[in-house]
Every structure is written in C-alpha cells, then in structure tokens.
Amino acid sequence: MMLNREKNSFRQTLASHGIRLTRGRATTLQVNVGLLCNQSCHHCHLNAGPGRDEVMGQETIDQVVALAGRFRFETIDITGGAPEMNPHISDLLRRLAPLAPTVILRSNLTAVSEPGRRHLLDLCSGRRITIVASFPSLNRNQAESQRGPGVFDQSLATLKELNKRGYGRPGSGLSINLVVNPAGAFLPGSQARQEKQFHRALEKKWGIAFNNLYTFANMPLGRFRAWLEKTGNLEGYLQKLTAGFNPCATDGLMCRTMISVAWDGTLFDCDFNQAAGLFLNNVRTHISEIDELPRPGTEIMVADHCYTCTAGAGFT
Length: 316
Ligand code: SF4
Hints:
By secondary structure, the protein is an alpha/beta fold. It has helices at about 5-10, 10-15, 60-70, 90-95, 120-125, 140-145, 150-165, 190-205, 220-230, 235-245, 270-275, 305-310, and strands at about 30, 75-80, 100-105, 130-135, 175-180, 215, 260, 265-270.
C-alpha cells in the first residue's frame, strides 16, 4: 500500500497537534568532519564509506574552532563518517577540548584501532573527551552482517583499551556511551531493557564496562533508504514511523538546541537534514558567513524523515 505522503507529511502532523518546531538557544555544536569511513554500514544515512573523499579541510576546521571559541557551546559533538579518519582530527580535538564542558567523539570503534590512530585513545582520555560508540549487537554474526567482517572483535578490543584508560569506570570522569540500532526495517525495542542486557553480557563475557546505552531508529535516508527500496520495505517502514508519532517527543528534539556543520562548512539544523539537503533556514549558508547563531523562535527545517526522531520515545 502506498503511503499518502500529503496526508501524512510531518509538517501537517505537527500542525494537527498544534506544534511549531522552532529553535531554542543553540547549546550544541555538531561537526561532521567528513564522509570517509572504513565501514559501509547498510543503515548509514550519509552513504559514508571507504570510497568517499569528502573530508573537512584545515580552513573549515579553523572556522569551526573560531565559532566554538566565540559562542561557547555546552556540548561539541564530532561525527562523520569515521571522524578518526580526518587527517586533522588530532588538531581539532586538541583545540576544541578546552572550549566546551562536554566534547563528544563519535566512534565506530574500528577506525581508531587502525595503524597510526591509536594515539587518539590517549588524546581523548587525556582531554576528557566523551566517546559515543556504535556497538550494534551482542551477537557477532548480526554485528558483522551490519558492519563488515572482523568488526566485532576489533570493537571489543577497542572497548577494552578504553576501559584500561578509565572509560566507563566509576569515578574516572571518562564516559563511554554505546549506540545500538536495529538490524532491519523495524523500530528499536526498549532502551532500558537493552541497556541492562548489554551491561550484563559485556561485563560477564568480556569484562567490559560502559556508561549508558542509546537505542536509535534508522533514518530512511541514504544507504538505508536505498536498502529499504531495494527490499520493498520502504512504505512499510515509513508507515511504522508515522504510526509511532509521539507529540511529547517533539519537546526534546536535538534540532531545537543544535547547529550542525557539514564537512564543507555548510550549516544545517542536524546531521539528518545534511543527508536530506535541507539547509538551516532553507538558505545555503557557510560557517564563515554567520556572525550570530540562529535566534530562538527560528523555524526548523523538517521533512518526513523527522518521523524517525519522534516515533515512540524519540531519538535524542
Ligand atoms: S531529523 Fe530529527 S533532529 Fe533533524 S530536524 Fe528532523 S526532527 Fe529535528
């Protein structure tokens, strides 16, 4: 059955609940340092992978650091691709770490273990950088069918290295949070239940500790959308997302308080709008062109992929 997109458009759904999705004060700076990755996960909304050569260059890195110094965000969230593969990543981490109380590095736990990158583990622990790591499954086959052969053991080895440096250990002040996403065209199960299960299994089988676990639904964009189309799952998946719309989840959406910079310096409300090509304020603006952050009350750009963030308990 075809989804009636007009009837179900996210914008109309918001209107029917009397909700205006507008910005508050921007407290998080998200920096996507490139689409280059050592993995080609089938759920990636950005089509990141080894064949991509889009990476943030030195000039844009300098502009990001200048912006972070000028506006003092509460959180700086560095993502990719595999951010560790950006040739300027050490410089960026060193310069951003003193500029916000929380600096996050998103890691797939394998790029960092490749030759020439292990120093990044020391750099992150030394500068109290929070790690948010994708670790999709406790099952080796399931994890490797989503992310590629060898990924499971490499991820465990990196988690152990992080634990050795204090990550996930009480009193260390070093946080590592895991991200789990479904292996197919369905929504994630209970976050609290999975967190308990992961804590128990990782500790018991491998002696690994972590802080929190987040379950995220896959975005129907990029490679995941292509997979949904190819397997005939697109309409069914969009219907599941639409049916799961939870108006209460719109209050805490990350786009209300985030400004997101793409690898080339273009500004967006979030990383997903980057993938969808929806510019901040609907105008292509470069980081070098802004002299103030978007004002509270500014409209957020939305499209039907936003149902992913508002299905069930929400995305953030
Ligand atoms: S995709 Fe999610 S975070 Fe981005 S604008 Fe839509 S609701 Fe907000």
